[in-house]
Amino acid sequence: MVEINTIKNKLKREELYQKQKNAKAKSKRDRRTTLQKEESSNPEKKEKRLAENVPNTLENTREFDETIVEEDAEVAADEATDEFSQYFQNGLTPKILITTSKGPSASVYEFATELVDIFPNTHFVKRKPQFEMKHIIEFSKNRDFTDIMVINEDRKEPNGLTLIHLPDGPTAHFKLSSIQLSKDIEGHGRTSSHKPELILNNFNTRLGHTIGRMFTALFPHVPEFQGRQVATLHNQRDFIFFRRHRYVFKNAKRVNLQELGPRFTLKLKWLQKGTFDRKGEHEWMFKPEMETSRRRFFL
Predict the structure, then answer these.
(1) I want to staple 217 with a disulfide (CB 3.0 to 4.6 A). Which of 5, 15, 30, 87 is the partner?
(2) Which helix (H) or strand (E) holds 240?
């Protein structure tokens, strides 16, 4: 076969390239046609080919992790006594306080408004300069709040989210990125006061299971299907993507999804036992040296 790059004439190079391309395509079609004929007469051959040609996915190529959760008696026993058991067993209604770091910018207030719209029974409290985290935690406990969200910022842009479960923790801190407010999403719908349904995807390890339960405890137990809204937290390679939609019923047979917004991405940085404490014990903390492989994930 003639090497194309050895031909100096541009028109000749293009002509030869097109001939070789067409020949490869014809050869591929011929192989596919022959294979179809063989498999139609021998179905077992097709079954064998499909069994062997398993595509690589994030899940089947990830490194083995002994902490991946299976639904068994041990997991059920742990969940019966963990920090979220009151929510799951006693039907505790979430009550969330949202606040900010000190001296927040306008963009942080905008994002806080979006969070208040996402989670039912949520209250925004403006943080005064003299309020330290221990004061906010005591304030929230005394008023029966179940969770606190603190929006952190850097260079006047939201860059972190700290989630504290009350009264006894745990506390999780996430890097916050890729924020897109509802107003910036083309064709976004209008939200209603109906309680949303939560969908969690791929929170498979012990750590991921804890984070999933932490998010679940922010939403009411029984979603309202009349004005059905769906909040989705999808974990992919330890990045948690948030999206929110509502169902639009065109007729009895046709239902569309309309995005409501906002969009944002979270990445867990640390998980701490108990409520927020700068000197407290960490259950888990991300460190760069933990990234030993592109196929190793923690959630």
Answers:
(1) 87
(2) strand 239-249
CA angle 291, 297, 298 (to 5 degrees): 100
**Which residues share a beta bridge with 68?**
205
Q: Are 150 and 99 in contact (CB under 8 A)?
A: yes
279: CB partners within 8 A, 6+ apart = none
d(CA 206, CA 287): 18
Query: Phi and psi of 251, rounded to 5°?
Result: -160, -170
Q: Residue 92's closest CA among 166, 32, 15, 194? A: 166
pLDDT at residue 99 is higher than 90: yes
Angle (CA) 253 242 265, round 5°: 150
The closest of 288, 82, 50 to 165, measured between CA atoms, is 82
* Exposed/middle/buried for residue 177 (C-beta within 10 Å: 0-12, 13-18, 19+): middle
**Strand, helix or coil for residue 177:** strand
Reported as a single tens digit per residue, the pLDDT across 50-72 is 777 877 766 666 666 666 777 66
Where residue 115 falls (left for φ over 0; alpha for ψ -120 to 50; beta otherwise) is alpha
Q: How far apart are CA 118 and CA 240, in angstroms?
A: 16
Contact present, 148 and 125 (Cβ < 8 Å): no
In order, the DSSP letters of 56-82 are: P-HHHHSPP-TTB---SHHHHHHHHHS
Cα–Cα separations (whole angstroms), residue 24 to 3, 4, 7, 191, 296: 15, 15, 20, 53, 38
Q: What is the mean pLDDT of the chain?
A: 87
Residues 268-289 have pLDDT tens digits of: 999 999 999 888 889 999 988 7
